[in-house]
Write a structure and sequence with these properties.
single chain, 279 residues, alpha/beta, Rossmann fold, 8 helices
Amino acid sequence: MSENQPNTEQQSADLPGNYASVNGLNLYYETHGSGQPLILLHGGVLPMDVRDDNLADLTKHRQVIAVHMQGHGHTPDIDRPLRTESMADDIAALITQLDLAPVDLVGYSMGGAVALQTAIRHPAQIRKLVVISAAMGLDGWYPEVQNGFVEMKTNAAQLAGSLKQSPYSAQYPEVDWQQLFTKLGTLTSSPYDWSDQIASITAPTMLVFADADSIRPEHIVEMYRRLGGGQRDPGLDGSLRPTTHLAIVPGTTHYNLVSTPQVAQQVAQFLEAPMPAAG
């Protein structure tokens, strides 16, 4: 919603979460745990279940707000393309509506890209940023992954048919699976390059990747450099280390990374650490 529209947040009678009216969307989100707020953004196709044993660790000392982005989960789609920038604006509008700013933001894959754009477009909204297995440009993904993005759109009907036969169809009856795969294929295969934009991010940032990720290691290192990392020796006492953290989780891939306990542990440690001194 625009800043001038009324707050129309409302609870669903049939679901454990709430709906907020933002930018023409009925944006669904669930709140778990208590403490300092953390907004959690899922990857493409399916929302992340915060009640999962590994992600549940984040709720032990935090209030985790898990958002279902446009066309995903319990957030119905609208007549609008899936664009990282517009989804970032949705998250910023939700942060404003819930009066959370500045808030910690954690995103995985597509959600990591949305988290990056939220920090770029709405820097005052973000306290700390965690980006899990997301790229700052299309060329960061391996060529075979990029081909898969194109095929997602081409094979949207077939992919949708498979999902309709799965338990997810009953779990998320609002989803138009063919439309979702078509829009996701367009989103993920469209060229983008945020290498200059992410250098402007001011929030302390943590990058998390698998050691066998779908993103090229050279791209991972360049992202880290663009965010101020890898510039020099940090000094014997570590006083010259950058505010950006980089975690490579061994024995994982892009597809199982968030299901490992190491990710929640690393993220919690980063978020709980004191804010870096200004200047």
